[in-house]
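Hey, resending since the last one bounced:
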Amino acid sequence: MAVNVSRFHEVFRYQSRAPVPALLEDLEVLAHLDARAEGQRRALAWAGRFTVIPGAVMAVLTYGVWSGTVERDEITEAGARLLQLTGGVGVALLVVGLLLFLWRYTLRPRDLDNRRYGLAQVLLRRLELDLAPDAPVRLKLDLRPPDALDKRVKQDLVGWWSTDFFVDPWFMLETRLADGAFVQVRMVEWLQKRERSKTSASGKTKTKTKRKGFARLEVSVRVKPERYPGLERLKVRATAATRLPRKVELERVRVAAGRLSLRARLSDQWVARAGREPGSPETPAVWKQALEQDDASRTATMMLLSIYQVLGSTRGRAKQRAVLRRRETV
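The structure tokens again:
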């Protein structure tokens, strides 16, 4: 399906149910829109600086020269006209620069978080290998910032801080794999914005702000209970079998008949995909800090593989029991 660009720029949400190639094509359109917005904002920032700074300097110098010479009555008529022209140009440049910065600010919602559609692209390409041809995938993305007003769930006082709490369930992907298992991947970001003001003895008021948050990534698989008997009793085994990247915390394991889900907690500075392993000798030192950030796509992949390890063990045990029963009846 084709992305309705005008509609997307109103809501900044994407939702579709289509085969992987069609979804990837749409995500490429979103990436192109984001890149164009980033380029426009960069150009407007440079243009704003090159007009505001010279304009402000010209206006200030003109005012200084004018006020100094008029008081002493030392300016000629030609000089006065030159100062008026210079001051007018300076004010015009200043106004144009401020308008450029205002235009840049209005484009801010179009500058998307690259990680969000990037995570969807990576996971779709990885899941495509395990999907039947033309199998539909349902994808929902909320590409607005996590502190959008309608994502605020509570306002409270935490210590001396006035705090806004935000919950942002921005990512959901679900599909049926070629083996019949139904897979769902969800990501929710939690954010706190804190602010407090303090008045010093001199009467000056200072306002401090802080932000902190984290992300929860959940992968769940639904299967036919009769194919995996006894799955609901394997919570301990599933917990022990789960493997996650370093520093990623396993928060919850849920096991039921025909269903297994894992939930992990990531830093709010997660990345969609790390380029190289931090310990690789080819990795430049300046990249290592960035590569140590939580890799969301790798985490989701490892969670899915951990689930399938438990399912494979359960299926193997069921087959062994079936073989033993047939031998007993012979």
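The chain is about 45% helix and 25% strand.

Sorry for the duplicate.
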